[in-house]
Structure formats: C-alpha cells, structure tokens
Amino acid sequence: MDLEQLAAAEWRQVGEFLYQLDAERIPGGRVPVRIVGDEQVLARAQAEGAASALIEASRLPGTVGFAVGFPNLGERWGFPAGAVLATEYPSGALVPSAVGPDVNCGLRLLSSPLGEGELMPRLHRLLDELEWSIPIGVERGGTFALSRRELEELLAEGSRYLVREKGVGRLADLWTTDAGGHFHDADAEHLSGPAKSAGLTQLGTLGTGRSHFVEVEVVDRLYDEAAAGRLGLGLGKVALLLHAGARRLGQRTYEEAVEHAHHSMEERREKEPRPGLVWAPLSSMEGLRCYHALRAAANYAFANRHVLTHQARLAFHRVFGGPPEQVLEVAYDSAANVVGVERLGEKVVCMHRRAAVGAFGPGRDSLPHLYRDIGQPVLLPGSMGAHSYVMLAQEAASELCLASACHGTGRVLSRRLARKGVTASALLEGMEKKGVLLRSPAAGELREEAPEAYREVDRTAEILERAGVARKVARLRPRAVLKG
Fold it and tell me: pTM, whole model, 2 decimals?
C-alpha cells in the first residue's frame, strides 16, 4: 500500500478530535502520525495530499514522538503547513521546509484600557494614523534603518537589542514575548550578505504578504474573566493584533537553508522523499548552519514586531493621548514558523513548527512568569473580518500534540479560486456590513483573503478546546483591518 492509500484508509480515531495512523502501518515508519481535527479536517487533508505529505515527513531520520497536523493542515511544497515535527537532538534531521519561508511569522496581542465607546468616534482617524505609521508595500522602507554592525547585534539579540541600545519599547515588553524576544542560539555568521542586506531597511514594516495585518479589535466575549484579566483583556475593551515576520531577510535565509540541505543530501547520495523535503543532519556543518541562521532570522522577526508595536503605540498616542507604553501593553507575542531545541518530557528534541505555535500547559519553566501557572497563551486569528480567539494551552497538549497548536485556521479555497469567486467590490461591501474598516495598498488583491476562503475560526477554537489542546479565554471582534 502506497502513502496515498495509507492516507486515505488507515486512520483510527483515538480521541474526540484526534486521529492517528500508527507507525506500524507506515512502510519505514518511525513514529505515529496524528491529526487534531474533525472528520472534515481529516477528509480534506486526505483529499489534498497534506496527510500523505505529513506521513512522508514522519519517516525522516531521528523523528520522535509524533508527526502532528492541525485543523489548518494544508499541503505545501516540501513540508505541509499546519504541522509539527520533532527530531532527536543532536542526531536527528534539520528540515528547512518544516519552518517555511515566512520565518517567525508570529502574532502579537496588545491590550488597552480604552473602551469601545472611546474607540468608535475616532476609528477612522486611528486607521489613518496606523496606515501612516506602519510602512506597507515593497518600496516603503522602515523608519529604523540599521548599519551592518547594528544588524549583526540585532540578529544575535532580537528585541533585547532594541530596548537596550535604541530605547525602543521597554523591558516589560520582553516579559510577555516568546523566549523573551530573543533566541540565544542565533548566529548571524551563517546568514549570507544578500540576506543581511535585505534586513537593513525593512525593520518595522508589515510588508506585502496579504496574510500579514494589523487589526484593531474589541473584546466581545469572556470565557474566563480572571485569566483574561491577567492578559489585560476586559469586556468591551480595545485590543490590537499584529501579524508579521522576518520579511525578505527571513525568506532569503530560508531559501539558502534549503540549498544547504539539498547540497548535504547530494553529498550523502540521498534522494528527496518528496520535492522540497530536504534535510541535513543536525550534527553536520550544513545542519548547524541552517539551524543557527533560521534562529537569527527569527530574532529579526521578533524585533520587527517590537518596532511595529512602538509605531502602533505612537499612532494610538496621537489619537487618544496618554503615555504610549500604557495605551498599549504587550499581552503576548507568539512565534510561528520556527525551529528550536527544547525539552519535551524526558527528551531533548529539535522541534519544527510550521504554521503552528508552542502550547505548553501550566508549570512550564520556560513560560513567562506571568503565565506560568495558567499556561501558554495561544492566539488564534480568524480570517479577515472574523473573530479571533485568545486561548490558554492545557497540560494535555504535551502528550497529545507535541505541546503545539495551530497558527490560524487554514484555507478551504486556494488563492486562485478565491480570486475567481469573489469580487473586490463584494469583499469591501461585505466588510462594511460587518462594521469593519479595511485598508490596503492593494485592496483589489485581497479577494484571496476573503472570509469564505478560510476555515471557520469558531469551529477551530472548539476543536482545540474539546481535544484538550487549549481552552478559550476571550473572543475578539475586529473593527478595523490594515493589510499588507
């Protein structure tokens, strides 16, 4: 039986929203493959080839635990999006496509003491200020141009460098950011000159990726008032979501990591299991070079969201007054599309998360002190104009799904089909009916981001909660969207 047949026929249900393909059923199988989702998620993964792609990845050298897919699972070149893979450290594989080209494309949630009543009369002006403050598009550079020396330090230290050397933001912003906004094992020496050049002028920019956004939100429902309060969220209060990554520097670093891994496979006389699914031994020079370069690019993404936060604070300050750092507080910054060495149970592993985020339950020492007793915040963004959810990881997530959760809901329509089925005027009219202001320098191209192109976020949140991965804390309703 080939992988396509396996993906279609051999799954068994091991939980209410958990399906598993046992390792013994996979030719050359190393670990079981799991999908967190309902029957519809599994059927789509099977039909679109994402299930067989995940099965193929599970057979890579040194894979441990499980290979896990989430409700946003979708086939991509190499490793599928919405999936997680753990390999042995230091003897396992480093898989660049299990990170993807949008390195550390994370989501940052900022809370505000402002209420909806204060927001709405000034919403148009606020969106004007955000659009003016946050560069979008290919040609617009950032407001924080860096010298070569400064870039080297930033790649090594991430957001910490900006607080210490540039006076941007404050130390408390790092306390509620994944890894403190700084992966300590980054090494800029492994980035090429062209990759570094791309990062000199793009700090503090949203870019042109149409999945990247700034959203002005209002908290419209609380599921756990006490936990929401810890995150600075109150019913009817304003919040902001920032979704951005490492820009062109990250993409170039990823492309070079794929090249290094491909070269490593050629030297070892090994064949790619599927197009793009190249890997290098973590213990090899190529593997280490890929790992440390991807970690440095992730630091750039942390710094990018840190500067975007600074610019958003200034925009809010110009509209509402008050100290910029108090009008928007960093509730949490969650990294996606990253690779890192971490402890999982008794094992030390190299964890790859593509379109997925960490989801460690209460008690994890690496969590920010503020959330250590309640679990890691999991930010689940909806499609443009839909709700987003703030959740908290549960203890069971470590055993169920490698202490991970999905980053977004995933597409149900390809970009081509979405453009074909939705007109720009219908999209704008639909957003207006929902009471959401929309701005973008390429509004006509946003058809591929239409709400109907994505899976329903309410169902995704329900799956995560009932599967035992994360529990709902608050729901956010968008009032204004600024898109790349």
Answer: 0.96
